[in-house]
Amino acid sequence: MSTTVEKIASNKVKLFFDVDSAKFDEAMGKAYLKVRSQVNVPGFRKGKAPRKLIENMYGEGIFYDEAFEIVFDEVYGPAIEEKKIEVVDRPEIEIQEIGTGKNLKFTCEVFVKPDVTLGEYKGVVVKKETTLVTDAEVEAKLEEERNKQATEVSVEDRAVAEGDTVNLDYAGSVDGVAFAGGTAEGQTLKIGSHTFIPGFEEQMIGMNIGEEKDLNVTFPEKYHSDELAGKAAVFHVKVNSITETQLPALDDDFAKDISEFDTLDEYKADIRAKLEAKAADQDNNNFTNAVIEKVLDNAEVMIPEAMIERQIDSMMRDFEYRLMGNGLKLDDFIKYTGSDMQAFRENYRGQAIKSVKAHLVLEAIEKAEAIDATEEQIDKQLEAFAAQTGKTVEEFKASLSESDIEYFKADAIRDNCVAFLRDNAQIEA
Length: 429
Hints:
- The chain has 3 domains: about 110 residues, Alpha-Beta Plaits (2-Layer Sandwich), CATH 3.30.70.1050; about 100 residues, Chitinase A, domain 3, CATH 3.10.50.40; about 160 residues, Trigger factor, C-terminal domain (Trigger factor, domain 2, Orthogonal Bundle), CATH 1.10.3120.
- The protein is built from 14 helices and 13 strands.
- A hairpin with a 2-residue loop joins strand 8 and strand 9.
- Helix 1 packs across helix 3, helix 11 crosses helix 14 and helix 12 packs across helix 14.
- The longest helix has about 35 residues.
- The two termini are about 60 Å apart.
- The relative contact order is 0.10.
């Protein structure tokens, strides 16, 4: 058998197969044994008619499809492995010659991992933002920590005020008739949270513990219950208790209670330092992403549709798994959003194309620059996964297959490639 390869595009090749007649004749014999039980021949039970008789009645072409599949399965896989072809789609097959006593000749056109034409990728010029942490941001973070230490204190000597938390009973009615879900006892409501119908919370301000009152409200025109939407309603309410939120004083004692610092000024300085470190990390990430974006823009690659569709499949699976975690099904979600499966897939197309291009371009740079990863770097990739299993890196590595290790190595190489691009980029003045 002989196989030759012709490159017909940057992302497509054509393979020419010339298979010895003896191999095809052997496949025809196997095809007869498989197909004969499906052929009706007068005077013979199914599966018992001689091959020659079947061929006389139907022509030997009756076995061609099955015989071709047998030969194809035997020669195609080894051929692409031998020629080191990375196929990304099913081949388009064309048979030139087929028949008993003849060499089987056919061609396969197949999309392969495309060539990448790299543009400028070393020394790309990208703007880098520097985010400054403001005093207001420090104060906001301090207030956030202060609110975590807040306590609810019972109020006995005054009426309900904005910001209070009230325990109440209520019974709602429309035109004097109670409605489903409109009655409750011992409910908790924070005044000013706007979680109840507009006007409800505002009318409770000034009520005292034990006081009862009718609140007149109107349901919004757009309400989840069509029966209540836009309707005027009366809620009879009773205040059972009132509590107010008390915040600790912002002083040195507060700092000592919630941190390792002795003074409020030291604690605020630490908050600023952490906010600045977080901002710097975000600035660096944005810069790295901008570098990669520019490198991708400078590169050219013809991505086969099959690679895009496969990436969309992967993204759809990830989304479906997240939905399942929330007890939802993808089909139901798509129906609720008024979309359909094809339109939903198209939403991912742009992101999928960008993702595939990034993979191909970065892979090409890794080869061009001979970027590799050290054992220490691979071990670092394994550490997070090992910790989840309660094993050491060595124990975890021992449980992995060779292909698993290659996966982690590829991740480490990709990290090194990104670092290479970032370190070689120039900051726009």
